[in-house]
Specification:
alpha+beta, HIT family, subunit A, four-stranded antiparallel beta sheet, ten-stranded antiparallel beta sheet, homodimer, 15 strands
């Protein structure tokens, strides 16, 4: 058993006895504005620039940033800064597994950070390629540092844009959660791609990329190093996945040229989604190998974008069977043909 | 290979190459009112009684009902009727597995029905116990008939209440989907409970129920035959699960007394949720054993209720790790103490 220095327990990780899935119970996040009788999270008020906690994060009680990238145009100005989440879902504690009756739980140890962009009103699809690559560089720099912490098993980087996508603050920001466990759906994907590799000697994602490039039916955008397509078996209508064409398990080892190509394709796809679908709210997240990456050479990292065009209802919640009424072929055609 | 009579292919089931999960691609559902540039599904207009397709389902082009339960008070009036979904996600086709490059797909064979309640304005929590037990009886009768179809592997019964819970029509209705596959998360639960049974000789759900009854911390309501509690490792804040106290894998074999007790506890919990949380939208669904039930004697059926009090954002979508800021103990206390 390893003792983590910071013993200020913020949350609890609980394991589902049947599925093995994990839940983070983080009551301190209740200190955020929260009303019990609010029927819909969408009724929250949008916050103005004046009251925005991310305009000047330090003034609003955020501590010293863990990373600051300066603006190209004005060296006195920050362009991207990373701070600890003021209402973190993860914090200190011990790694020890505890029990309550038949149940298993642990302290929610880990790090929860916010990646803040300078401009309150600039949605990510409005960033220049230069600005986008600065954001990607911030993700990578923080990932590399957090992955050195011995108690971290997986680092999730994600972006929620808009209230209906779960962003409680309008000001554009991404989040980084360094977790002490490998999340269940990452574990499933790792196992699935390992099984495919054992059977065929090939990377399942490389096989898909090859087929999509040939068939072209679901491809949305392509550049020298990356490809974006709507997946054959998708999780949501208008879902887009971006893959490096060269097999690579880990996103954090991109070259400068790869960062540029990745920023280019991410910008292009977000612009197309915004134009074709009427500026929808969206989520995106990176799927990359867990931090002990030498075990996961069969994996192929990627980014998934989910525009908010539907609701997970009883069927999806009750069975995990996804039902979509727009095929990935139709969605890809619409997005591919959207001029940006 | 078995040929299904109705060869009118309505949808496609596609298998994810990595996870093994299934997706239903149902383009015919696009014929429902749908706008590409609608930024949020919540902006749809509510439909008035006059234009409601469920006020007189046959007048609005629904075919003959597969089940009609008459009103107690007025024998000329229907109280519950079940019709085929006008925009079904499942239909005819063959059971044969096909391939497109490396991918696997099948015709989406199955049955998609709608269970319609008579009163346009009566949310389920406003039903009398008598009316609720009629609804439960409709679920059971349709389940029993559909489970006789040789090509059906699992029947999902669910209820979406309100736009933010994915209901596209206000008029209270539930849905029944008879699927040709066992859904991934049902498969995981079956496997998880089987592993527990092999290790301990006990039903994992019976063990949980025993512990919850003793600890009382998460119990919300209890009657002679059923218990409702907020699960230790939940999928969403304010989630409630209702279990029969007696071990039983299959919901469709309830006795008359059990139907009454089940309707009583479902009514009570929905009333408490509505009162404590400000009449939120919600989903519920039944988890029961797959139709070839003799294989699944270790399973324990239950109903899950998910009030819409949060949004699945980037973390949940990207990792399946759920983050909640209200513990199940707090949620249970609030609901338990809500007078109805």
């Amino acid at each position: 058993m390893k003792i983590i220095k910071n013993n200020n327990k913020i949350s609890e990780l609980r394991k589902d006895l049947v599925s093995g899935n994990w839940v983070i119970i983080a009551p301190k996040r209740m200190q955020r504005p929260f009303r019990l009788k609010e029927t819909s999270p969408l009724k929250r008020l949008r916050n103005s620039i004046k009251n925005c906690p991310f305009e000047n994060p330090q003034l609003f009680g955020h501590g010293e940033p863990s990373l600051v990238l300066k603006s190209e145009k004005n060296k006195n100005q920050w362009a991207v800064q990373v701070v600890k989440n003021k209402y973190p879902a993860l914090g200190g504690g011990t790694q020890k597994t505890k029990h309550e009756g038949p149940y298993e739980l642990r302290d929610g140890i880990g790090i929860h950070e916010v990646v803040i962009l300078r401009d309150h009103n600039k949605n990510l699809y409005q960033l220049s390629n230069k600005e986008m690559s600065e954001l990607v560089r911030a993700y990578i720099l923080r990932y590399q540092e957090l992955s050195l912490l011995s108690y971290i098993a997986y680092i999730s980087i994600f972006h929620n844009s808009g209230l209906s996508a779960g962003a409680s603050i309008d000001h554009p920001h991404s989040q980084i959660m360094a977790l002490p466990i490998i999340p269940p759906n990452v574990e499933h994907s790792i196992r699935g791609s390992l099984n495919f590799h054992r059977k065929t000697g090939k990377c399942v994602h490389c096989v898909m990329i090859d087929f999509e490039k040939k068939s072209k039916k679901r491809v949305i955008f392509e550049n020298k190093k990356f490809i974006a397509f709507s997946p054959f078996a998708l999780n949501q209508a208008f879902e887009v996945r971006i893959f490096p064409k060269k097999h690579s398990p880990q996103f954090e080892f991109m070259s400068v040229e790869e960062i540029e190509c990745f920023s280019d394709i991410l910008s292009a796809v977000l612009k197309k989604i915004s134009k074709a679908l009427g500026d929808p709210d969206y989520n995106f997240f990176i799927h990359t190998a867990p931090v002990a990456a030498f075990y996961y050479t069969h994996y192929h990292w990627h980014l998934e974008i989910l525009p908010k065009k539907g609701i997970q209802a009883g069927l999806e919640l009750g069975t995990d069977v996804i039902m979509v009424s727009v095929s990935p072929e139709d969605a890809a055609k619409i997005l591919r043909n959207t001029k940006i």
